[in-house]
Design brief:
The structure is a homotetramer. The first copy, chain A, is an alpha+beta fold. Chain A has one domain: Jelly Rolls. Helix content of chain A is 18%, strand content 33%. A 6-stranded antiparallel sheet of chain A has the order 2-21-18-23-16-15. Chain A is globular, with a radius of gyration of 23 Å. The N and C termini of chain A lie far apart (54 Å). Chains in contact: A-B, A-C, B-D, C-D. Chains A and B meet through helix 4, strand 13, helix 5, helix 6 and strand 15 of A and helix 4, strand 13, helix 6 and strand 15 of B.
């Protein structure tokens, strides 16, 4: 038997034994730096809004099909309904008078409101009113339902760690028993009144915060004022806020950082690359981002994905607020986060692995 | 030589060798439960205010005598100027137009304003405006000076961990170089604008918070609203807030918890005993506290000490806010904190060690 | 246009916009409990050993094909060379006199030696001798090469968090520059001498441990003695050890718990289900495991996978040691870990979601 | 009334009100750097040993006088039986056949054996055998008794955080009920068998370690070997080990670091000053230490105190092991720890605050 025949037979035997030779991996398992399958991609608001509205006309909310949600399906991810390998992004549409019934699940979720008034989400009995620009949390294993008491629809952005939790094969799900909606206990927005203080917590709150953030709503007027202050202090072209669990100062969800960035027109941000992916929602304004050398023009309501290790910079043509979710807390938890700022002298287009010394100024954190 | 003579000579030799026999300790080093030397004590506002004003007339602020401060000297502590073994409490008086020059020290301090307007404390360059009911932090090793630009004096409560840091022989102190006052950088109240958000932090703030709380001011209007919300949610007779470092959810100073408690008239709180001491300042209202069986009547501006392991309950005759500093974070850091709630059936006067089983419902934390 | 036509057109438009309707997901994204694609599977040592030896004869180690590794390819994972969604398991074969050249990567790895002597792995300059039953760490971003100075091959089990880090798109990789092998600094097994004490650490070691475990080798004689002691103390049928980072008491790698379990013949362990997957290597002994109702017989050298939320129990017919890697630290980091012990009365075969109340005794951790 | 009369009356009124003017503090509350009352001091073994033996002859162990202990009374601490403001050091003598009955207390203790064999300390039911050079822990609120089953006495060093816990007014104490001695459960030295592994912990041990270190004994042969390895790796003149809680890598007791330092003859260590105090026990060897310019000669069994912020260096004339307890964990917990290494060029005698820039290379930790 020739060596080739021997090899052939060997590889057949290996495959039959449910093994794979590392040296023949088709897929490049160990690239010099991340080579994401996730693609930089942008979804336009006019398309999202129109399709959400058509869904509102065509699809009723009923048991078994609880949520009227169109999810961002990144073209790099093989047909999965995921924006990135760790993050779910979607548009949810709740028509006038509609309610989405109660359930809970181990994936954690955030809701960032884009349009509408008169809606509340009940989270473990606490009715959280929703207004444009507000952020609402429905953390891991909290009961939640959505209720529209107004004459107009509400449209919001859904962000979840679902792709990660699916990958970890750790999804649990339950319908709320018997009735579709939870009873609301007391006045609306209890969490904001109790845990939304400025450096203030009820005595004993730290213990509660171990399970998840006890603060469930973050208001647009607060982020707006905080970004103004940051801008006055630090100057442009961009400043950023993180929404945090007030009992720990940590990210709003343990798996997901929620951020709001304000851009002033004109300046262009320094190109940066980061390990980990993010989904960005243009809350207001207009401008463009260059991701791995490709320019994406955006305006209010548009959503786009920044893959891991992509070189990215932003430039606004109007005063702009960008809301973003990222998986940075996951990477940081395991010593995998890394961020490199690229100065102008570096040739960053085309050869993304050049000019970045791993022992250089971009440090592991 | 008789046994007695032998023993006598032995004890002489032991003493000469700078040793002490454990079995002859005069002081009860190992009591069944804490037997504090610290005494429950109350200082009345009318006395404090009058003496502070006389100090304002008689004593000028100048280099070498930087601060016009009258410290609470607990009669149990052998003439030391300390409210408790770990906590310093004092009244500070700053006359119209006066400035207290800059310095820094390793003991951390808080200022809780009782009277006056038009004053600011500059902390590492950030001018923090002070109003009645506000809390201002000057943490470990931060430069600080106080400036009165108004026509009336300001009087505030000073709380420090100085007795603890003195005991640890860890006090460092520096005068601000050259000029008496730090330059103020930018607009006043920078820390409140940047770190006083409702569940919001500037991206990267967590790193800053490791040194000390980046939030330096806590406003009366915020505590007032938060206590209203807590009361509506939890009911009386008492609810409590903690002032926290927003980057960690931990206490405002690592050594000292700052709290504000609201009492509604009528109800009496359940008697409780806690390991660790506290200094209480009556911000508004009137009522009484029973501490180890002794009743203390108080009204606005009064200050009192609760020693470690004392049985205490409170009752308000008017709507009341009690500000307090405690050393609980120190005890918790070392597994020494404990809290026991005493129900009405227990005989708690006189024999404080009865009726409290160490393995019972009052748990070590 | 009929409703059906409208719907059809709508779904076309949605797909064209790179969106997906949640209510039409083919894949069950939100099952009541984990429904892993990962399959329970067993690879037999006789097959693994024979194929590894054939690989040794047929495949040389050279630049570009650094490692002679046959990876466990779970049949449920669509042809990927992964044992589970988070864990890589493999057999590595290093022939007499061979060296596998230096490189480093962000995925962390462990080596558990099955056969051979006279080999060492150099990790950041520290040559770690390898003997059967030893565990060797090559953590995230540490340089490592393998060297066989003996006349016989060595075979070991490779465990990595590679599938997780690939999924997170966070893989970095570098070849060791210029020469294939790192210089060895000083005597072999430096980490064991410095950090392998019994409750002892060099002053200052905690700081070093933040990057990764400074202890890189764990010896068979130590685990053997520790399991004997555990068994004497706790009794059978099974006891378990965890290999830890001595500067934190945490898992050997931040993403991966390494454990060694000893089974005494006869008894059967209580069935349990856990969130998260594991790869088990039979170091010595023989017996069987029942996983989701399917019995797997095993003996020394066999390797098998336990998927997330599978019901599993073990029974030994000979004194047995099972080495295992699990992704529990990842699940615990995000509040996703859960473990339920099933008593005999429960019907656990077939309907794996019955008899397990989520609010019941199996608690979220 | 003259100004002097007014001032006099004012100060009288202030004192009568239990207040003290900060500007008249006799005691320098805020020195530029620590000015400890604690004095550098040395107790000689020949004196300690002789007095301990005389105590053994004169004083019986019985209920009410449980422990035959001579405590180091630092001459700077006003007659208190304390070595430093936070640390208790003492010699304990247990005669042949004697037992010291069971009790527990919130102050944590360590025992470092100087002489004798055949003794065990039972800690929560685990009998811990004691040999020269071993360290035994009796942590916060663990039951413990001591038993000498040999024909010769044992003498050991007792280290406690008692002065700190007394100062915090947090001492609780209980006699062991009914019988004087706890029943011993199982074989001796259970904690060493279960938790004394080399990087190994029983599965689930981390949870147990939250209360206190589950490892209660640290053996001389292990420290000896570890110091040899450190010396071989790092070179002299001095290397140091810390005894740690294996479930956290933290100090053996939360309030107290236990360390063992090996000095090789000849070299002199670099002078250093540290915030916080320590008690040093010369386990073997001979040499001298210069503390704040004063030379202390020592040999085996001697004990000495290093006060906070003292400049200290050591020089051995024989191979030397120095055991030490320090309060560094307390200072680190509150951001108060600091360490400065002084190079030879610095004038360090007499003016201890010169040449040490607070923003210089000696960093706050």
């Amino acid at each position: 038997m020739s060596v080739d025949q021997e090899l052939e037979r060997f590889y057949e035997d290996v495959a039959r034994a449910d093994l794979q030779p590392l040296w023949r991996q088709q897929r490049n398992l160990m690239p010099r730096h991340p080579l994401p399958e996730t693609r930089a991609w942008l979804w336009q608001w006019k398309t999202l809004r129109a399709l959400a509205e058509r869904a509102g006309e065509l699809i009723s909310i009923e048991r078994g099909g609880d949520r009227r949600v169109l999810s961002l399906a990144n073209p790099g991810l093989g047909g999965q309904p995921f924006a990135t390998p760790t993050l779910w992004g979607a548009v949810q549409y709740l028509g006038p008078g509609e309610s989405a019934p109660g359930h809970r699940h181990t994936p954690g979720a955030i809701r960032f409101v884009l349009e509408g008034e008169g809606v509340y989400t009940t989270v473990d009995g606490d009715a959280c009113d929703m207004h444009p620009g507000d952020l609402i949390l429905t953390p891991n294993w909290t009961w939640h339902d959505h209720n529209n008491r107004a004459d107009a629809p509400m449209v919001w952005f859904d962000g979840l760690d679902l792709p990660l939790v699916v990958h970890l094969e750790a999804v649990f799900f339950q319908q709320y028993p018997d009735d579709v909606l939870q009873p609301v206990t007391g006045e609306h927005n209890r969490s904001a009144r109790l845990f939304g203080g400025r450096g203030l917590l009820p005595v004993g709150a730290r213990e509660q915060g171990r399970r998840h953030s006890p603060l469930l709503v973050y208001r647009r007027e607060d982020t707006d004022a905080a970004l103004d202050a940051l801008l006055a202090e630090q100057g442009g072209p961009m400043v950023g806020l993180e929404y945090v669990n007030p009992t720990s100062g940590g990210p709003a969800l343990p798996t997901m950082s929620c951020e709001l960035h304000r851009l002033v027109p004109g300046g262009r941000t320094t190109p940066v690359r980061r390990v980990g992916s993010s989904v960005v929602v243009v809350y207001q304004g207009a401008g463009s981002s260059v991701i791995n050398g490709q320019r994406f023009e955006w305006s209010a309501g548009d959503m786009f994905v920044i893959p891991s290790w992509a070189v990215v910079d932003h430039q606004a043509s109007e005063p702009t607020d960008l809301f973003a979710i990222t998986d940075r807390p996951v990477l940081e938890a395991f010593g995998l986060y890394r961020e490199v700022t690229l100065d102008g002298a570096q040739e960053v287009t085309g050869q993304f692995d050049r000019g970045v010394e791993l022992s250089g100024p971009g440090r592991w954190s």
